[in-house]
Design brief:
By secondary structure, the chain is α/β, with parallel strands linked by helices. The protein folds into five domains: 2-78, OB fold (Dihydrolipoamide Acetyltransferase, E2P); 84-157, DNA polymerase, domain 1; 163-274, Orthogonal Bundle (Arc Repressor Mutant, subunit A); 291-489 and 730-742, Rossmann fold, CATH 3.40.50.300; 510-721, Rossmann fold, CATH 3.40.50.300. It is built from 26 helices and 28 strands. Strands 11-10-12-13-9-14 form a six-stranded parallel β-sheet, with helices on both faces. Strand 4 and strand 5 (68-78) form a beta hairpin. Mean pLDDT is 89; it is low at 407-411.
Length: 744
């Protein structure tokens, strides 16, 4: 574990050895001999630094439990040698593969102080030296330009962006990076992870840019729209709101900003949707996503073969006979609607028979010789779908065959092998937990479905919307363009469960039953410090002891918020201390304010399509937002750890730790699509926007065996009574209705 000392230090010296380097992300461990004859271990993102070089490093000292005192680099300067003797020492260090001390001596002897100019601009001249082929000479030129290009970039933006972000910029733009930053730094916002509008603005304003420059207003517009997506899941915003926020951000006259926005719309630099009430502005890719979804859904709905009820009746009756079940009226309706619809939406709460419908559709369509594909947005939802149907179910990403994405491709979303050029073979695609599908995943899914195939979307429209941008399921339902079956009847198994009963009571605005004995739903009245201590005791001791279950994989604490005494940040520290305390045989890695320890339960908090893992000897790609795993071994010296996600062993470089957080407690939003045997939830005063009925309903419906709510009854009552849903701006419903009317 690291003990961090905050005081900033500066060290100048010569690199004696490169102990370790990750070539992909530039993370490096150096031994540096200082002017005071001290040997300092330096760690951080320092690509292209080699033995024999003279560098200045700025950072903070940390004390590592195993490796001792280290300087954690925030930034560094590498002085490119200019004098012949310094150039000779540099090249002799082996910094350029293929050039050893003898060859370096000959090159410097011939070209002197012009050596780097020759190597960069006339590398073919190096082929005159024995041992350097024409091909190798060109490779040397490429390597020199690469190194010099990065340092020119880092020198240019050292005070604005951290080293790892500078490396990402260089990996994307190469030798054009500095010119791109000089010309229009705002263009990098949203393309380079970690490069903020603030950084772009510092660079532009520092270079004498005009406060009302078009590219600055456009950059601010994109930032406002991106932030709306990040914080509220909005696909777009009303024009007036964008103008006000951009004007405030840039301290400009709103009228001037409004004129710029009109120009951006006309030039198609941002998307625009006209509505009578309030017209909307989009980032272009968001606009194209919703437009594509609307067009493909309507096309899919029109293209299918529509079977008559009398044609399907014998197949439905045979399916009932084979399953030993009697389908209820609304279940039969759903099955018949699927036969007469290209797109069908089935919505209902827990215990309303959605799984029975899925199993019936599989049985019926397979008997017709059709290929059926089952999928869900998350790994846990797909696993649950597979278990309940006894058929293969995949994540939507796996169904679409997500592909590896190189760092140089930028920070845009996933690419898939299944797309409009390589369509899915399935005749009917059944998607569970459809309320979780964001606009970009829906866009990708629809692009891969062939005309004539059927799409059945099942979900609970009363749950929270997707974590990602958009409100797809709600928009499809509200558009009135597709057949919808609403399931309301609770079946026998569900009616015996107080979890199910109370979930439906909450959804109707009624207080849950909290005084029943020997049931699966409990409310424990606690407040203040007693609430938190009881929650920890119930999770770590009482439930495991009473029911013989593991707190790691059977019990999940769910809370509405990240902040505060009952937020994930505080609860995770508390539960980590209870469930996985420090031990001599457990390695740790401190990252920012979090200690990751071997054996910790962790969650991936953003999609990473480049992480790899092995499945039956095949390399697979992708760990996704909401996936939960356990830290295995931490290799501190090699700067990585292994994390196991349901048997998928994934290597995490320390530069990726910003994508992980402890998962003993998770937010309700992050729990969507998952079920846990035991759910424990604090109920107290949360921010008003989180004291809502649908958030409470979503949390309770995550519990399969038992739900335990701990807190104040008045807070529970306020959540039940508050049926206000947070506004999420989208244009999909309007696009569907407009396109649908044009085909009437």
């Amino acid at each position: 574990m690291e003990d961090v000392k905050d005081a900033k230090e500066e060290v100048t010296g010569t690199v004696e050895s490169v102990v370790y380097r990750n070539e992909q992300n530039g993370y490096t461990i150096l031994e540096v001999s200082t002017d005071k004859k001290e040997l300092v271990t330096v760690v951080g993102t320092m690509p292209f630094v080699s033995e024999g070089e003279n560098i200045t490093v700025r950072g903070s000292y940390v004390v590592h439990s195993e490796y001792g005192r280290q300087l954690k680099a925030d930034s560094f300067e590498k002085r490119i040698p200019e004098q012949p003797d310094a150039i000779l020492k540099y090249l002799s260090s082996g910094v350029i593969k293929g050039i050893g001390p003898k060859t370096a001596e000959k090159i410097v002897e011939k070209y002197g102080a012009d050596t780097f100019e020759v190597m960069s601009n006339h590398p073919d001249w190096l082929a005159d030296f024995k041992g350097i082929s024409p091909r190798r000479a060109l490779e040397i030129g490429d390597e020199i330009r690469r190194q010099m290009g990065f340092y020119r970039l880092f020198d240019f933006c050292r005070d604005v962006v951290p080293m790892h972000v500078a490396l990402r910029i260089y990996q994307n733009y190469g030798e054009r990076a500095v010119e791109q930053l000089r010309t229009n730094p705002y263009a990098l916002c949203g393309k380079i992870r970690g490069f903020s509008f603030t950084a772009a603005d510092q660079i532009a304003m520092g270079a004498g840019g005009a406060p009302d420059a078009r590219e600055r207003v456009l950059g601010a517009t994109v930032r406002v729209l991106e932030r709306a997506c990040e914080t509220g899941g909005h696909a777009c915003l009303p024009v007036k709101q964008v103008v006000i926020e951009v004007a405030s951000l840039l301290e400009l006259d709103p009228k001037e900003v409004a004129e710029h926005e009109k120009d951006f719309v006309l030039e198609k630099q941002i998307g625009y949707l006209h509505r009578k009430a309030d017209s909307l502005l989009y980032i272009n890719r968001f606009y194209e996503a919703e437009r594509s979804i609307a067009g493909r859904l309507l096309q899919l709905d029109r293209a299918c073969v529509r079977y008559r009820v009398e044609d399907m009746e014998p197949l439905v009756n045979r399916a009932m006979l084979e399953s030993g079940l009697e389908y209820a009226a609304m279940q039969r309706k759903a099955i018949f609607e699927a036969a007469s619809s290209g797109v069908l939406i089935i919505t209902g709460g827990p215990g309303t028979g959605k799984t029975t419908i899925i199993k019936a559709l599989i049985r019926i369509y397979e008997s017709m010789g059709c290929e059926v594909a089952l999928a869900a947005p998350t790994g846990r939802a797909a696993k649950r779908m597979a278990e309940s149907t006894a058929c293969e179910a995949r994540t939507i990403h796996r169904l679409l065959e997500v592909e590896f994405r190189d760092e140089a491709d930028g920070d845009e979303g996933a690419t898939f092998a299944r797309n409009e050029h390589n369509l899915l073979d399935a005749d009917i695609i059944i998607i569970d937990e459809a309320s979780m599908i964001d606009m970009f995943l829906m866009q990708a899914l629809l692009a891969a479905i062939r005309p004539g195939a059927r799409l059945v979307l099942l979900g609970d429209c009363d749950q929270l919307p997707s974590v990602g941008a958009g409100n797809v399921l709600h928009d499809l339902i509200n558009s009135g363009c597709f057949n919808i079956v609403r399931l309301t009847e609770i079946f026998r198994q569900g009616s015996e469960s107080l979890i199910v009963t109370n979930a439906h009571r909450i959804n109707r605005g009624e207080m849950p039953v909290t005084d029943a004995r020997d049931k699966d739903f409990f409310f424990m009245k606690r407040e203040g410090g007693a609430l938190i201590s009881t929650l920890a005791e119930v999770t770590a001791k009482r439930l495991p002891a009473t029911y013989g279950v593991s707190a790691f994989d059977k019990i999940q604490v769910i809370t509405p918020t990240r902040k505060g005494a009952a937020g994930t940040e505080t609860l995770n520290q508390l539960l980590q201390a209870e469930l996985n305390p420090p031990a001599k045989d457990k390695a740790e890695k401190k990252f920012r304010n979090v200690v990751f320890r071997e054996g910790d339960k962790v969650m991936q908090i953003r999609n990473n399509y480049d992480l790899t893992w092995d499945e039956d000897g095949k390399e697979r790609f992708g760990i996704y937002n909401g996936d939960i795993g356990v830290i295995g071994k931490i290799y501190d010296r090699q700067s990585y750890m292994m994390v196991s996600f349901d048997g998928r062993e994934v290597k995490y470089g320390f530069d990726l730790l910003e994508d992980l957080e402890l998962a003993y407690a998770i937010t309700v939003h992050k729990s969507q699509g998952s079920e846990y045997p035991f759910v424990v939830m604090p109920v107290t005063d949360f921010p008003p926007m989180l004291m809502t009925r649908n958030l409470l309903y979503t949390a309770v419906t995550r519990a399969k065996t038992m739900a335990v709510l701990i807190g104040r009854e008045d807070a529970l009552s306020r959540m039940v009574e508050n049926d206000r849903e947070t506004v999420r701006y989208t244009g999909l419903c309007d696009m569907l209705q407009s396109a649908g009317e044009s085909h009437v």
